[in-house]
Amino acid sequence: MKWLAFIFFALVALTDPTKVSKINSLKSEAKKAFLAGEFKTAIAKYRFLIDSMHVSEEEINMNLANAYFRTNDTTNAFTNYQPLTVSKDAKLKSWANQQMGVMANRQSKFEEALNYFKQALKAEPANEQARYNYEMVKKKLEEQKKQQQQNKDQNKENKDNKDKKDEKNKEQNKDNKNQQNKDQKDKQDQKDQQNKDKQDQQKKDQKDQQQKDQKDKEQQKKEQKDKEQQQKEQEEKNKNKDEKKPDPSLAEKLKDMQISEDKAKMILEAMKNQEIQYLQQNKRKATKPKEKGKPDW
Fold first, then answer.
1. Quick check: is 197 in a domain?
2. Which helix (H) or strand (E) holds 107?
3. pLDDT of 158-174, one tens digit each?
4. Is 98 within a domain?
5. What is the four-CA torsion angle of 45, 49, 53, 54, rounded to 10 degrees?
6. Is 247 part of any domain?
7. Is pLDDT at 13 greater than 50 in this prediction?
8. How many domains does the chain have?
9. Cβ-count burial 244-260 (b if 16+ within 10 Å, e if not)
10. Which of 93, 171, 226, 270 can pair with 87 through a Cys bridge, CB separation 3.0 to 4.6 Å?
């Protein structure tokens, strides 16, 4: 014990008094905030002690876990309680297991909760709260198993009743099926006859349509032939008309001479008339009787 006391005082002597004072002040403030129900403030101060001041004390970890538990932050509470479930301090170990059991119970993990409460009682048999929780969860498990057995029995009874009902329904369905098959056969026969009549009508309609299509085709051929004949006649007319049209080169020459087409036609007509008159005159001269005694030339 003397050596332990010596080591303790030596460590205190080597420790910064200001830091120790600040740590103690933060502990006091965190505890005060926790007791006042200001759990978020308490969490912040405990986290600062652990993360920034590097204080490693199981009591501080326990207080931090309790603060998380009070804010219903089960994830962080679990993280901080878990290492304490194997603490060498019997009270801390018992309390950590008890709180883990409470969280498991809230999640309806009754087997897991019962085990945590059992470990809490092993660490500290005088933990009456853990004992109460243990008995309560144990009773829940018994009721749950009882309910499960009742449900199992009820399910079996329901299954038996269902099997009987199914058997009865099976017989009824068999009779119904026979009647349905008969009705279905009659309907099918009727449907087949209707289909046959429909097919016969379709064949007749198809034949009529083919005849109509053939007539239409012949009519189209006739119309096409008439159209081709008309087109041919029209081409002959156009050809004759084109022959009467003046030579395009002549039209250009007339245009260069500044003579209109109508005027050119008049000139051509006059020339044609003169040529006819000339031919007629020559014809009359050729029909006069020759004088006797004169040569033909």
1. no
2. none
3. 888 888 888 888 888 88
4. yes
5. -150
6. no
7. no
8. 1
9. eeeeeeeeeebeeeeee
10. 93
Angle at 119 between CA 146 and CA 89, to 5 degrees: 160
Q: Tell whether the torsion through CA atoms of 200, 206, 208 and 210 is positive or negative.
A: negative
Q: What is the DSSP string of 226-265?
A: HHHHHHHHHHHHHHHHHHHSPPHHHHHHHHHTT--HHHHH
CATH number of the domain at 68, please.
1.25.40.10
How much is the pLDDT for 78?
95
Question: Average pLDDT of 26-31?
Answer: 93
Helix (H, G, I), strand (E, B) or coil at 288: coil
Give the whole-angstrom CA distance, residue 44 versus residue 79.
16
Residue 247 has pLDDT above 60, yes or no: no
pTM to 2 decimals?
0.49
Structural domain that includes position 134: 10-140
Please determine, for residue 7, whether its predicted confidence score (pLDDT) is greater than 60.
Answer: no
- Do the Cβ atoms of 108 and 83 come closer than 8 Å? no
Assess if residue 1 is contained within a domain: no
Mean of per-residue pLDDT scores for the chain: 83
